[in-house]
Amino acid sequence: MVIALTVILPSCDNEKNYTQKIWDENYGSYQEILNLPINREVADGTLPKNKFRNYIIQDYFYLQNF
Question: Which among 23, 33, 48, 63 is placed 20 to 30 Å from 12, CA to CA?
Fold first, then answer.
């Protein structure tokens, strides 16, 4: 891990700049995730309970097995 960071970080002045670079490079993907139907429905309070329940069950299964 330390070797990988030594190779990546020299191109940036500090960790804050590196973090900003990663955010800048992935901002479009982040916006796409925020705009997923399930995220929009959670945010505006319209997600049906059964849909939320199924999501939580799938998430639990994933976290327990992977």
Answer: 33
